[in-house]
Design brief:
Layout lengths: L5 H15 L8 H14 L5 H10 L3 H11 L10 H21 L4 E6 L6 H17 L5 E8 L2 H9 L1 E2 L1 H4 L4 H7 E3 L5 E3 L1 H5 L1 E5 L13 E6 L8 H13 L1 E9 L12 E5 L2 E4 L8
Parallel strand pairs: 1-2, 1-7, 2-6, 7-8
Antiparallel strand pairs: 3-5, 4-5, 8-10, 9-10
Helix pairs in contact: 2-4, 5-6
Length: 282
């Protein structure tokens, strides 16, 4: 099997960015070459050129789903970047509890964008349930939307079974209460936590998102590093339109924003709050 050529690699980069927004480095040829080998084998394709033209035909949805799954990054685990989760439970949840006491009809809505295989969304759901089970105001309603461009990743998330290496950083009180050890050595998320989350396939490059209403928190952690500046700015602007006033945007600890550009002010490390004084674009 011939390897991926430089010219064809450039064409793949353009296609990947078109479909996912992800920007591969120009020295990532060998990485992409290796990631695509299982697809060539699975679909009995002779070479990378044949695969590329099969993708352009857009006749095989399974092939496209497998391709997107291979070219997007799914490295994640439970309770990743724990300092942000500590701020969430110690600072933000209590603040939102008081808001619910003042406006009991308000429904808390969270969106975990680019949720990968579900670990982050389940972590948020566990922390939410643990906090509001003790501090629940009257008529509290909590909804979590979790989306990812990879259909395979969403299928894994819905299944809700994880290896020990993925779940080991989860605090023991959450593991004991919300997971069950299976005979295959994996841990399964409790049905109660699964019911809190609506997992959907969604490409963040869409011009319009297929849902209504705004969110109190949007999690977009460790995603922006894969986008170029233009894609990043367009996405943040679009997400900002779906964020409630006084709502929070979480990004990865290695990421940052020009916080005044969208009326977002950094309150905690890589956690931004939407300013009341910000005027949204029409």
């Amino acid at each position: 099997m011939l390897g991926l050529t430089e010219d064809l690699y450039i064409r793949y980069l353009e296609y990947i960015k078109l479909k996912t927004g992800v920007t591969f480095s120009h020295n990532g040829l060998s990485t992409l070459n290796n990631r695509l080998i299982p697809i060539l084998i699975k679909y009995k394709l002779e070479n990378y050129k044949e695969l590329f033209y099969k993708l352009l035909e857009e006749k095989d949805e399974d092939l496209l789903n497998d391709f997107i799954d291979k070219v997007t990054t799914h490295h994640t685990y439970f309770y990743r970047e724990d300092t942000q989760f500590e701020i969430l439970t110690q600072k933000i949840f209590p603040e939102q509890k008081h808001q619910l006491e003042d406006l009991p009809e308000h429904k808390l809505k969270y969106w975990v964008a680019a949720c990968s295989t579900g670990e982050e969304a389940y972590t948020v759901a566990m922390l939410l349930d643990a906090f509001f089970r003790v501090n629940q105001p009257c008529n509290c309603s909590i909804k979590i939307l979790a989306t990812d461009v990879s259909r395979r990743a969403i299928q894994t998330a819905c299944h809700g079974e994880y290896r020990e290496s993925v779940i080991e950083k989860l605090p023991s009180y959450l593991r004991e209460q919300y997971t069950t050890k299976l005979q295959n050595g994996k841990s399964e998320i409790s049905p109660k936590i699964k019911r809190m989350i609506d997992f959907r396939v969604l490409n963040l490059l869409r011009k319009d998102f297929p849902f209504q209403g705004k969110f109190d928190i949007i999690f977009l952690r460790n995603v922006l590093i894969y986008f170029d500046d233009e894609t990043r700015d367009n996405l943040i602007g679009q997400l900002n339109d779906f964020l409630n006033y006084n709502g929070y945007l979480f990004i990865g600890l290695t990421e940052s924003l020009l916080f005044n550009k969208f009326g977002l002010k950094q309150i905690y490390p890589s956690i931004y709050k939407k300013s009341i004084g910000h005027v949204e674009k029409n």
